[in-house]
Amino acid sequence: MLTGYAFAADIQLQNLRCEMLFNPQGIDVTAPRLSWQLTGSGRNIQQTAYEILVASSAAKLAANQGDLWTSGKVSSNESIMVAYKGKALKSGTACYWKVKVYTNNGVSSWSAPAKWSVGLLNAADWKAKWIGYEKGFPWDSIAKFSRLSARYFRKEFTSAAKVKRATAYISGLGHYELYLNGKYIGNEVLTQMPTDYNKSVQYSTYDVTADVKQGKNAIANVLGNGRYFTMRPIYKPKKVKEFGFPKMLLQLDVEYEDGHHQLVISDQTWRMTADGPIRTNNEYDGEEYDATKELPGWNKIGFNDTKWLKPQLTPVPTGKLVAQMSEPIKVMQTLKPQKLAELKPGTWIMDMGQNMTGWIKLKVKGKRGDKVTLRFAETLEKDGSLYTANLRDAKVTDTYALKGGAEETWHPVFVFHGFRYVEITGYPGKLKESDFVGEVVYDALATIGEFETSNATINQVYKNTWWGVAGNYKGMPIDCPQRNERMPWLGDRATGSLGESFIFDNQKLYAKWLNDIEEAQTPEGAIPDVAPAYWNYYSDNMTWPGTYILIADMLYKQYGDVRPIEKHYPSMKKWLTYMQTKYMKDYILTKDKYGDWCVPPESPELIHAKDSSRTTNGQLIATAYYHRMLFLMKRFAKMLGKEDDAKAYSALSLKIADAFNTKFYNTQTQQYDNGTVTANLLPLYFDITPVNNRKAVFNNIVKRITTIDNNHIATGVIGTQWLMRGLTEYGRPDLAYRIATNKDYPSWGYMAERGATTIWELWNGDTANPSMNSGNHVMLLGDLIVWYYQNLAAIKAGINQPGFKQVIMKPIMTNGLDFVKASYKTPYGIVKSEWKKDKDFTWNITIPANATALISIPAKSVDGITEGGKKAAEAEGLKFVKMDGDYAVYEAGSGEYKFKSVF
User: Fold this and answer.
1) Which residues lie below 8 Å from residue 841, measured CB to CB, with a gap of 6+?
2) What CATH number matches the domain at 8-117, 3.90.226.10, 2.60.40.10, 3.40.50.2300, 3.30.750.24?
3) Which residues cross the membrane (predicted)?
4) Does the 331-441 domain belong in CATH 3.40.30.10?
5) Residue (of 131, 136, 128) closest to 229 by Cα position
6) What is the CATH class of 797-901?
7) Residue 568 · residue 835 · CB < 8 Å
């Protein structure tokens, strides 16, 4: 991020960025997209034109020499995703850029400069070799539960002249830690983004100019196992994918002032050992560190590595090398223990006060060989010991063996844990809370949303959501961080990704995940339930793979990003054709796998309901979802100019709707199939239900919720994705609010009342069978967070002006909700919405520059509305549109507004 300067007419440019919010090193796109934001104190500031300069050096840019691209003055209001149109970019190019903006309120000066660099675009640019060691060592165990030690690599080289620029390119499978002259390079952790390494392998780029010294240098790297080497396939070879032993590819390009280059590459001139302190590292089982095996100075010059081995040239991964374009994983914050209690002599239980994802960093002083063991869990047994039954066969245990002497500090580096409680054994001396800190680890995504209401339950559920979502971002969205799963299930993030986008800037993460999904597609067109396909689950259903299309739609709506639709449209079309050809009969989809997964069961110990009145027909779900996918694909086709496709999708939709209503709609009961909320909600919300039947179908939804379900939620993963918006849009926001604020079972509030600090996997997660009751899942959130922001806070992207170029603002009014205060950083800037109802309705709104809003104010008439103390009709930047029931609708330009109305 770069903060800009003040300009004429009090206009400012800020947050200049290219493709991503962190400094983009080594991108591998040849037409990067440039974005900027405007701010100013006036109202209705609109960009009318822009001018971009891109230069090959900071000096040239400062001299206004755009030797790579001079756009000239371009008449356009575009300020996000503006494609670079300059000279062809070459591998390793550093690009410096700035922008000048013309508005209806003046012209800016040039913005502060920003920079991006180009990675290695061609396979021929890589001179390095893949190196590693293709077997275990005597102290390793290649078995069901792997014990594979980390591999340490080093090489010394000489830099003979003054360095102008030095760039390191590295891929380390599965994780790596890179050092140069003893300094850790970068500030991320768990480096190397997870992919299906048979399809793609990511590399990272580092500017190490300041780290290469004239004279002798040492470059070093540690390899951990990550997702590359897990060993679980040994006992489930048909289910779990395995890739091989850890390996690395490294290329250091040193450019000197005289123009010549020196390459330091990974090859057999390096030295390696696995007889170091990290004795084993497995994401499920933990990390063992023996400080007595440390190698002092191993990553600095002068270390004696004569007894180390020569690495092997390893088989080259079949996956294509691609640049990492999403944010890295980092330690994002720290937590202090809230309680420390001795369970029995020598065994302590530490409570972090929050279910978190990451690890414990400890301080300890003791004798050489003393061993501290840490075990992790989300909850406790009644006797105060760890509850680990729900972890399945994950051992989730870290151990640290002391080297002895002075105080030692340690944390694992190649694993993470999901936990609130830690069992500590073997700790020498007196145990103190100050000896421990929890480091919270997740993708370095900015938190861009804030949300608060007058209702404490909603606020706690929102807080629990933040922790649950953050903890399950690990280079891909995983389902849980604690048991032997941690898999990127598609169904968990369908509508959930949209809700998450209001809290975190998840654009790059989900764009990367769409690539993972496409890479997992079979030649026939099938899309798996888990992608990357670490588990071989191709069950051919509509709901889980449908996430592929839903997320592409989310990225367009929330970020104005059409590129994922353009890129993935052929694969999406291929999947729909595959499902139609293989499973559609008389326009009904005959295949489903999961149903409405995890509806509230009838008995507290059950995971899934066995009562057929609670479950929804799988063919109904699959057919409704196929219809919904066609609706989205029709819109995509029109955006891309594929009119024939759009017509075909439209025609097929009509046939499916007719077949659906014929098969599932009961004209006597005026409901679908067995009348579950999901059975009625999907066709209603997906516009399958004929207009004349919609009121009756909705009334049946309301009747079911208010009578049979006692005003509580009765949907699972599928129905909950559309429930809150469905109830609200059909006139019952009060019922949605009741469901959102319930504190008894089943509800989100029930989880919080029972002490949850994240979101459970099951509505009855405190009583269900431990084989499936994770305390940190987000799949049951459905559209709750979407509803929080779009309906309670009234912050929604305009359908025809995506990325919040237009903001749709219409707050729901329901008894019991007295105020909502929210903000959201859109691609154009921050939108704020703070309303309060008492005798009157007051609403403070902020709309960013170069955006507009359609604002619906609760009011009996326009005569009762003021803005800034004046009648709304006299307010600058406002235009009355119409009365819409109990709302007065206005168009508004950018700026800050203070409304008051009688409603």
Assistant:
1) 835, 857, 858, 859, 899, 900, 901, 902, 903
2) 2.60.40.10
3) none
4) no
5) 136
6) mainly beta
7) no
**pTM of the prediction?**
0.96
Q: Say whether pLDDT at 901 is over 80.
A: yes
CB atoms within 10 A of CB 349: 20
Please name every residue paired with 452 in a beta bridge, in sequence order, or none if there are none.
821
Residue 358 buriedness (CB in 10 A; 0-12 / 13-18 / 19+):
buried
Coil, helix or strand at residue 627: helix
Widest CA span in the chain: 88
Place of tokens 């780029």: 205
CB 11 within 8 A of CB 90: no
SS3 of residue 126 by DSSP: coil
Q: Any idea where the domains of the chain sit in the sequence?
A: 8-117, 126-326, 331-441, 449-792, 797-901
What pLDDT was estimated at residue 146?
75
Active site residue 761: yes
Which pLDDT belongs to residue 191? 95
Q: What is the pLDDT of residue 23?
A: 55
Q: Is 7's pLDDT higher than 60?
A: no
- C-alpha to C-alpha distance for 835 and 887, rounded to whole angstroms: 15
Reported as a single tens digit per residue, the pLDDT across 731-766 is 999 999 999 999 999 999 999 999 999 999 999 999
Pick the CATH number of 126-326 from 2.60.120.260, 1.20.1250.20, 3.40.50.1820, 2.60.40.420: 2.60.120.260
pLDDT tens digit sequence for 181-218: 999 999 999 999 999 999 999 999 999 999 999 999 99
pLDDT tens digits, 238-283? 788 889 999 999 999 999 999 999 999 999 999 999 999 999 999 9
Assess whether pLDDT exceeds 90 at residue 232: no
Q: Which two tokens stand for residue 577?
A: 């054709």
Catalytic residue check, 485: yes
Output the pLDDT for position 18. 40
Q: How open is the CA angle 719-722-723, to the nearest 5 degrees?
A: 75
**Above pLDDT 70, what percent of the chain?**
97
Q: For 538-566, what is the mean pLDDT? A: 98
Check: CB of residue 187 under 8 Å from CB of residue 136: no
3-state secondary structure 473-526: ECCCECCCCCCCCCCCECHHHCCHHHHHHCCECCHHHHHHHHHHHHHHCCCCCC
CA distance 366 to 370: 7
Q: What radius of gyration, in Å, describes the C-alpha atoms of the chain? A: 29
Identify whether 24 is preceded by a cis peptide bond (ω within 30 of 0): no
Token reading at 503: 């809290």
Query: Which residues pair with residue 379 across a beta bridge?
Result: 387
CA 329 from chain centre, in angstroms, equals 11
Model pLDDT, residue 20: 32
- What pLDDT does 185 receive? 97
Helix or strand or coil: residue 692?
helix
Give me 687's structure tokens: 């516009």
Taking only the tens place, the pLDDT of each residue in 602-649 is 998 999 999 999 999 999 999 999 999 999 999 999 999 999 999 999
Contacts of 504 (CB under 8 A, 6+ apart): 445, 446, 447, 448, 449, 469, 470, 473
Bond from prior residue into 174 cis (ω within 30 degrees of 0): yes
Q: Which candidate in 51, 500, 761, 867 is catalytic?
A: 761
User: Which one is catalytic: 177, 485, 518, 867?
Assistant: 485
pLDDT at residue 236 in the model: 67
Find all residues with CB under 8 Å of 656, minimum gap 6, and list them.
587, 588, 623, 626, 627, 630, 688
